[in-house]
Design brief:
The protein is of the alpha/beta class and 181 residues long. The chain is built from six helices and ten strands. The strands form two sheets. The protein has an eight-stranded mixed β-sheet with strand order 3-4-2-5-6-7-8-10. A two-stranded antiparallel ribbon has the order 1-9. The longest helix is centred in the first third of the chain and has 25 residues. It starts with a helix and ends with a strand.
Amino acid sequence: MFRNCKESNFMQRYLYIILVVTAVFVSRNGFSQNEKFKALFMYNFTKYIEWPQEYQHGDFTIGVFGSSPIVTELEMIASKRKADDQTIVVQQFNSVNDVRRCHILYIPPNKSASLQEILVKINGDPTLVITDSPGLAHKGSSINYVLKGSQQDFEINKKKIEAVHLKINSTLLSLGTVINH
């Protein structure tokens, strides 16, 4: 799944360029562009995370907990792209009890208080949990979107990712802020 060193350097530069260009659009176009940015990065994370073998077949499921404008952006990506060879499916979960197996689970800011309950529910499943509120990478999310000044960025909880049996490429680690909790 991971590319050789030359391709990895190209992909790192490509991802960085996307980050910079998107950040410029976010700062100019506000909230809706920010959701597009987050959805695009969520898709790009799939290129740098490796799921266990049993998760590499069937649909690639991105779950969204609660209501969020990111759903529309993710559905647009899913209609045009795949995660490797897997068809991307976007599912919304309205309660913790509704949450079921998915590759990625996004928890928007208005649902951040449910993080611990969700982590108990998924109980160490190989799910990349992405949050969007200050401090949540320290509280158990895998990746947390943060603002650094006016720039959108992300924190990576490497230990959490590895604890749920996901493999993370060093290229992604070099693009975010690594949190070791």
